[in-house]
Amino acid sequence: MDRVPFQATVAGALYEGIRTLPAAVLLDNVRSMYNVGSFFRTADAASVEKLYRCGSTARPPKKAIAKTALGAEDTVSWEHAWDALPLVEAIRARGYEIAAVETSVHAVDLFDWQPRFPVCVVFGHEVDGIRPEISALCDTHVRIPMLGTKHSLNVATAGGVVIYELLRKYRALGVP
Amino acid sequence: MDRVPFQATVAGALYEGIRTLPAAVLLDNVRSMYNVGSFFRTADAASVEKLYRCGSTARPPKKAIAKTALGAEDTVSWEHAWDALPLVEAIRARGYEIAAVETSVHAVDLFDWQPRFPVCVVFGHEVDGIRPEISALCDTHVRIPMLGTKHSLNVATAGGVVIYELLRKYRALGVP
């Protein structure tokens, strides 16, 4: 496992007693650097613990990442692994629920999902989705409701929807 | 008011008894065509009633819009107005709550907001935000919680977060 850990050093704001959302985000082969940058920005905004970049997911610093991350690539803690499989196993061994975000009809509806924190949410390639061998490793499969004629969202938009729903659910637990 | 109405003809899936989310999205001077395209895709996915493109917000068909809309620009009903002000007045006169999505600390937290459907959510320019004269016209000012060091999300990501939170709230009402 080739990991290049990066530790963020900048602290954000306290929100309803929450300093950090006990959640990590894993991107496996996310193709677009604009999407990767947007994920950094959302990860900063929702104060997720860590962003895992796996496989071909682009690494900062990159101009195209910075264009959408707007500096969040310097404040969000991240780590890289070429192969997501052993990383997913390692994260689960640390007690995380691993949740694949997919469009499968067999997945649980995002709004019905009751996550067991800490959680690691997994997003895959823009066109091909999450690789079957990664999907098979996940504890939960979550889908965002699709009412329209298309059957998926932009992956960075989906990231925002899922990460903020996790923040809402965590806040509702009244944990801190 | 220069409006070019476009009526979508393609019907999507029924979700928990909901065919259409009683919500409209108004984009005023959204600069990036990728962001406009993402809004189309999200508007299709959540089955919003209409997307209003105001001012300089780009108009389909455009290659850069299609790149992120992926066909949703043909399924979502939209309308254009050069000046958002009289349009906002007209939408409110039809009984919509007009909600500005802003980063102001005086705004209501998205998760605490209790919208009165139908709702029209307003998003502004990527850097300058919503114009003060539009903001002043809005019934409600909603902010997405920001826990990080940056103080905003990508506007299309913010759109996904707000539109899906509206869908969750509407579903929770058990209206249909």
Task: Report what the structure shows.
Chain A is an alpha/beta fold and 176 residues long. The first copy, chain A, is 30% helix and 20% strand. Chain A has a seven-stranded parallel beta sheet, with helices on both faces. In chain A, helix 1 (33-45) packs parallel to helix 2 (63-69) and helix 1 packs parallel to helix 5. The longest helix of chain A has 19 residues, at 155-173. The radius of gyration of chain A is 15 Å and the shape is globular.
Provide a concise account of the structure shown.
Two copies of one chain form a homodimer. The first copy, chain A, is built from five helices and seven strands. The first copy, chain A, has 176 residues and is α/β, with parallel strands linked by helices.
